[in-house]
Amino acid sequence: MNWTQSMRQRVSEKLTWDHLLPSEQPVYVSSLVYSFGVFTLSSLVICIASGIIMSAYGPTWYQDSAAGSLLRGVHFWSVQAFFFFMTMHLVGQFFMGSWREGRALTWVIGAVSFGISVIEAFTGYLSRGDFFSQWNQVQSKDAFNGAGIDGFLNILNNGQVYGLHIAVLPIILIGLVGWHLIAVRSKGVVPPYQARVLTKEGRHS
Amino acid sequence: MKPIRFSRDTLQFPQKDFDMVKEGVVSLGILTVLIVAAAAIWGAPFRPAVTNQQVALQNPIGIGQEVLGDLDGQGGIASYGPPYNNGWHGQAQSVQSFLGFSPQTWWGTPYQVNTAQADVLTPLQMLATASHDSALTAALHTYKTASYTQQQAWTSAMTNALGKATVRNGQVLLPPGHYGPVALMVNDEINLAKSGLLSGALDRETNGGVYRWNVQNDLLFLQGQVLPNIANNINMAGGQWGINHDEQAYPGPWWLTPYTFLYQIPPWSTGATGDQTAAYAMGLLFVLLILVPWIPGLNKLPKLLPVHRAIWRDWYRHLEKTNACGQCPLLASCTKEFRGHTSDQQQSTETVPSCYQPDATFAYNMNDGLRSPSMRPLRTSTD
Questions:
Q1: Selected residues 203-262 of chain B with any CB under 8 Å from a CB in chain A
Q2: How far apart are CA A114 and CA B242, in angstroms?
């Protein structure tokens, strides 16, 4: 079997341009709930953009300078927006049963992305370099210990925590979100549940 | 012959115009404006970190108590256990074990913290060397060469004395007592902290070089009483929903609410293994979230709840008005959410669900640019 040929065939079947960059969508896509996904993604873009600028200048810049403080504010509020829209997206997708008809993997990737985002945000709070970081570092060491993680992740080691926050976890998160998007596009938006059917007596069942 | 498995194809439903790129760009633009405005108006929370120097200047007795706890093994880290040490003289106090399950111990003691050495004796030895302080050098020698019983007698007397000590002009005044070399040692470490050099001495130990990535010992030095007292005053202690809220009126990491909630109720708020069981309780809930598509009952819950009818109200209004589902040749499969199999082997691959059909009434209701779908045959596959 030619792996390259097989991969090319599989990708071209699963990911047509109609799937990846659709210019049409099913008429049942007609609710504010559908906007939460794109708002989540937009917030993530702002998180990443502000984070790149902050890491380029370094911690003392975003702690001490006026411009750095503004960027820290942008990063802070984009994280709040990201979690708000991600939570709304998750809740909305639950009520739509969006794992149906071959979309379970999409749900799983999304849920794992949520979990990674929580850890990513936590390492960010610890990288703020203020009392909140200081206090939660010493507090969370017991929690991480209880979970059996502290022996690997020394939560009091800023080098490790900062590296996880600006490189390791974002790469994993971006990979998961990209996979999630491809999964959504390749399967299409989940069709609605069956409508009520009119009985012979004229009632909806 | 294998049964046919149906799958509804979203591209075959009636379609309307959609510009995904424009939607993304507009969304990004709106959120950028809102977020930058929020940052400009409200800024972001930031309370400067607490330093040993600040604490020593404001509360020298507090520093003295931390020093003694580290020296006599009464401090939390001195007797903590893995991954920092094996406890004080083999007695570990903070090892969490639930029904014999204790992953905390699996890693051994990679961080090796002997608080007496790391937090007191080493920094004081550095101070004595740097300042040619012969009295401090002698005090350290006396302490190190004394018996453990003698050391404990000195530190015990000193601990009691600090409880009655007063501060005058920044100096800690002790009642008369037999403190041996410990009084000088504690006093000198308070002065070292006041100078601002104690943090440097502690950081040096966990880095082994020029760079200061690891602030472990510096943070652990204050974690006994000083940091909890400050956190308690601003409602950030664990029992006060700790990490869940941030400074002042700023929103905190509210997404940790389910986790923080556990710390407010027994057994997590009272048990010795609260951290461990809270972590694994959350881990279990997270696994449940991931596995929702396969959990019987939970995966059918959204079908029973009416919320989806509000989300897709326009669609349902159309289908119910036209009774499209009642006339649908695939009605039986639809009730199985298109997950089931059909035994109807005569099912034509050209049979399409009624909801694929465009309808003028629907176009009017949706008030949108309705397009006729390309009527490709219903996708079928065998499994």
A1: 206, 211, 213-216, 219-220, 222-223, 227, 230-231, 236, 238, 242-243, 246-247, 250-251, 253-256
A2: 21
- The ipTM assigned to this model is 0.94
- Residue at A92: amino acid letter: G
The one-digit pLDDT tens for each residue of chain A (205 residues) are 899 999 999 889 888 888 888 899 999 998 999 999 999 999 999 999 999 999 999 999 999 999 999 999 999 999 999 999 999 999 999 999 999 988 999 999 999 999 999 999 999 999 999 999 999 999 899 888 888 888 889 999 999 999 999 999 999 999 999 999 999 998 889 999 888 776 666 655 5
How remote is the C-alpha of B258 from its chain's centroid? Answer: 11
- For chain A, the distance separating the N- and C-terminal CA atoms, rounded to the nearest angstrom, is 52
To probe the interface with A, which of B8, B32, B46, B317 has the most A CB atoms within 10 Å?
B46
Cβ distance B107 to A137 less than 8 Å, yes or no, reads: no
What does the radius of gyration of chain A's CA atoms come to, in whole angstroms? 21
- Beta-carbon contacts of B334 under 8 Å, excluding residues fewer than 6 positions away, are A194, B325, B328, B353
Residue B175's nearest CA partner among B184, B186, B185, B163 is B163
- Domain regions of chain A by residue span: 33-96, 102-191
- Integer-rounded Cα Rg, in Å, for chain B is 34
Tokens of A18: 């109609």
As a whole number of angstroms, the distance between CA B361 and CA B346 comes to 32
